[in-house]
Every structure is written in C-alpha cells, then in structure tokens.
Design brief:
Helix 4 crosses helix 5. By secondary structure, the chain is α/β, with parallel strands linked by helices. The two termini are 23 Å apart. It contains nine helices and twelve strands. The strands form three sheets. It has a six-stranded mixed beta sheet with strand order 6-9-10-3-11-12, sandwiched between helices. A four-stranded antiparallel beta sheet has the order 2-1-4-5, with helices on one face.
Length: 254
C-alpha cells in the first residue's frame, strides 16, 4: 500500500541559497512523525512546500497515492493537508466559533456582495469540533483574546482536525506555552491518532518528540540525513545527526 504522504527530490533555492536539496519524506496513514534540525536546516521551507505556501523548484509530492501539485495552501487543504503554524493564524477580535470557520463561514443567505452568517450552525459545529478533539473551552462565543495560549493552540488544532484532514502539520505547537498548557496540547495531539489523522510535527523539544511520535526525520543544511524510529533510538542519536557528528549515520541513510 502506498504511504499517505510521499515527497521525493524536493529542492528549493532562494537566490544563491539552497534551502532544500533533494529532500525526501514519507508518512503512513495515522503515523505521528517529527521533523527536527538546527536553525536554518530547512524545516520551515519544507513545511511551506508541503502545505502549498511555497512551490518547490524541483521534486514531486504524492498524497494518498495520487501525485499532487499545490499552488496555494487552499489546494493543500482541499487535498487533506491542514497546517497549524506557530503564529496560529487566528483573530483575537473574533469569537472561537468565528475562528474555527475563518475563511469557511457557513452562510444563511447571500445577496450580491452581502452575506448573512449562519451563526447558530457555526456555533453548534464549532462545539462539536472542539469536543471531538478534546479541547475544553467555556464558550465558543467568547472572544479569542480571553483564552490562554494553550486554549488558542487547541482551537487551531481543532479547526485543522475538524475539516476532515488526512494530515495535520504543526510548526512548534508548544513553543510559547507553559508546562501545564504544553501537557494539554500534547494530550490533544495524541488524540488525533485515535481519529485516524496523521501528524507531522516540527519541534526543537526532543523530550516532546520522543513522547509523541513514531518516526523522526532529521534535516541538516537542507538535506534529509536521517530517518529514525523513536522506539529504538535515543536523543543522542538525533543530536549526532543534527550536528553532523555521525557521518556514518548519514552514509548509511543515503
């Protein structure tokens, strides 16, 4: 059976800088994987290519066994890839329900350039999405500005999971959170597996990586230098690949 996601030969240059060089990556359905590497390794660029925010100069992407070309994040979302960026892309002035449906509002009526939102339906469906993902919010009618960092992250994840995604990509999902909020978000991420959703997570936190994922992909200087199984590897193995201290590991992977 074909993997859920397969990227092959992904290359991207910015002027004279090669951000990605022939990168390959695979994810199985329901798999939880981490993408790690030092600053400037190419993680954010690869995430943007997979999510449709950037076009690769070279390479091919398959999703569900079908080759895909993403011209925008909307194309990726329609194919089943949702992305939760570190900035969350949420609006503080809107309530939780409006943020869940941001850009995908339910309409009660449309008259030329004017539309009437179906607020009751949006509130009910937002409550269902949050409950299914295990996100605890007092009321989806509360403005987002009154929520904690962990709750905001939960809303972003619930929004991504609620749209029937096959794969959710998360960029540093707990980087700005405290210990308690981090633990809650990690619990939500684990729950995605029970719903059959694959996760690709970018993280610098190796403790978090080893507690959450099955597979660890390591980028260094724009090249994919390692694919490790979390159950049979150690943080030291990952660090050696990140820093280039284990050149033998890179040769074996290639």
């Amino acid at each position: 059976m074909a993997p859920l996601l397969r990227a092959e030969g992904i290359s991207k240059r910015f002027g004279g800088v090669a951000a990605l060089q022939g990168v390959g990556l695979e994810l199985e359905a329901r798999e939880r994987a981490a993408l790690v590497g030092d600053n400037g390794a190419g993680k954010s660029t690869l995430v943007k290519v997979l999510s449709g925010a950037l076009r690769a100069d070279e390479g091919r992407i398959w999703l569900g066994g079908k080759e895909r070309t993403f011209h925008s994040p909307v194309d990726a979302r329609h194919a089943g890839i949702e992305t939760v960026y570190q900035t969350l892309a949420l609006c503080d002035q809107l309530d939780v329900a409006a943020n869940v449906f941001l850009g995908r509002e339910r309409l009660l009526a449309r008259a030329g350039p004017f539309s009437v939102l179906h607020r009751r339906r949006m509130v009910a469906e937002a409550e269902q999405m949050l409950a299914a993902t295990g996100v605890s919010i007092q009321s989806v009618r509360d403005p987002l500005m009154y929520l904690s960092g962990g709750q905001r992250q939960g809303v972003a994840i619930a929004r991504a999971a609620g749209w029937g995604s096959q794969l959710i990509i998360m960029d540093e999902p707990t980087a700005a959170l405290g210990v308690r909020e981090t633990a809650r978000v990690e619990e939500i991420i684990r729950g995605l597996n029970e719903r059959g959703i694959a996760v690709l997570m970018v993280s610098h936190n190796l403790r978090q990586v080893f507690s959450l994922v099955d597979t660890i992909w390591v980028l260094r200087h724009g090249r994919m230098v390692g694919r490790l199984k979390a159950a049979s590897s150690s943080p030291e193995d990952v660090i050696r690949l990140i820093t280039g201290a284990d050149q033998a590991g890179q040769a074996e992977f290639a």
